[in-house]
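Throughout our pipeline, every protein is held as a single compact record rather than as scattered files. The record that follows is passed on verbatim for readers who wish to inspect the format:
___
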Amino acid sequence: MFRFEMESRKAQYTRLRECSIFVGTWNVNGQPPPPSLSTWLSCDPEPPILYAIGFQELDLSKEAFLFSDSPREAEWERAVVTSTHPGAKYRTLALIRLVGIQLIVLIQTDHYGFVKDVAYDTCGTGILGKMGNKGGVAIRIRLYDTTLCFVNSHLAAHQDEVQRRNQDFRDITDRINFRKPPQTIKEHDQVYWLGDLNYRLDRLTHEEVKRLLILKEMPNILRYDQLGMEQSSGRVFEGYTENEITFQPTYKYDLNTDKFDSSEKARAPAWCDRILYRGKGMHQMVYRSHMEYRMSDHKPVSALFRSEIAVIDETKQKKVQEEVFKLMDKLENEILPQVTVDQTEVLFGLVKFKEPVAREIIVANTGQVPVEFNFVKKINEESYCKEWLRITPNCGSIEPGEKCDIRFEVNLEQHLGKFDDILVLHLENGKDIFISVSGDCLRSCFTTSIAVLCRCSLPILLMSPEQLRLAESQQSLVLYSVPRELWLMVDYLYRNGLKNKDLFESTALHDDIIKIRDWLDNGSLNPILDNVSAVAECLLLFLQHTKDPVVPYYQTDKCAMCANFAMCQSMVLQLPDLHRNVFLYICMFLKELLKHSTENGTDVKMLATIFGNIMLRNPKDKKDRPQVARGKVTFLQFFLDNDISGLIMPKQ
């Protein structure tokens, strides 16, 4: 209630101050930094109060997809710090990196003491919907009394992947969570979104774009800009503003030149690198590219803002606080917070694997005083809700006569049968309200054990309860040496995907993943969805989420410590028979894939990195030490580098 009263009287003790904010983005194509970035970061006469600088493709090494350390992080941080405006001194507020996506926020030292609530989060949207080859990172701060959120993203590539880019944007928006209010991106007073958004131009060829640029017909080119069209249709970046583009396309250039792509692909020039914003009191002064940087196939972009920041007058604030304290003393025993909840039992019905289901409740303040609420942990529990449930917002405040919609989202990645939880909604200075959530989990081959699937004579959803009971108790016969579903996916990829470029590095639309899941779980006379990228991602999902991992948990660390191929072979021979079959079957497929590396661009290190981390996975609550993570990759690499034909036989 105190915070509500202070917030409602904010105008009495705050004033607006104009602050200059420099936002920059650059896809650096895995290159080390140039000697100086000054003509980019210090190109304005006056020094900005704050910098937010984002990079994409900071590190393109194969290890970067799995391991967190990268020398490029320190190199580019140093390049930024040493190239800030000479007219002021700066301190780093925060730096966050997800593989090749890095964001650094700096502020003038004179203002450093007026920053608080610094937080950051990452969201991978790449392989398996979470790895960091694509995705976003975000940093939020409270500058004086205004909350600012900076988001740096690298969205899905390729001309025709518009839907995937839109999905990446939604995933980042939904999944970035700063844990404490304001939790989500859109709850902040001001949001600055920058990055390689990868939107291209539709219906224009390379030569047509060049011709129109020579004729200075920029508006006619931008009519075909995918981002502009998608935003106008309300499919992406709703509520965001982008200033007029007056600079040359930022992609794709021949390295070390200002010439557009002259390769055989001759990609049409496009404005892949963008800066958008949303919020009050934000005034963008300039929007530009920096053509003098030629080391990458992208050009850096920057925007300068004059943003209104609320500054607290401490003398006036103390006076208002005294008034509020007096009011609180008077009301403390007279009025208690009162709310109504439209439902205290939230039913989710049948929920499927990797298909989130959401429900909402309405909490209305029916009392005379503001209400502050939050969900609290129960005794002996680590969190206020189960891992499969997400609550947004999980805390907040409601003024008298107002209401708050609280969203509950269930996303199942393991088979739970029936699922339920009791949530405690706590009202400050008031009572606790108990809310139950429950539902049923539909079985899927993706979350069933290898041993059970090898005993299933039918697709998993066509099996009778008795057939499943016999399979789960291992009383029925083993019918397949590897799960039928695994064979179907590998067989499709063997026939259709061996020559596909970057087979296990590109991502698929969520709808296509769902279609393949349903095809595998229900069975069908129709062929599997003809989408190589989607089937490849489903294969990874299958191996990642089977009830028991390919290499059992108790053997994972031992495998990661193997120093030579003989030790690795010995460990594989100790695997349960069906698990050994799956491990060797995947290895044989990957070796076939490597035979076509000239066409598909794969290499041993990349495949070992991706599949080693999945087939030798950990329980959710365990994280690898760096040497163990590398050991998993090395373990699988031994099998991809050596002859394993002697292991492809029944165990004697």
In short: The chain is about 30% helix and 25% strand. The longest helix spans residues 314-331. The chain has a mean pLDDT of 93. The two ends are 73 Å apart (CA to CA).
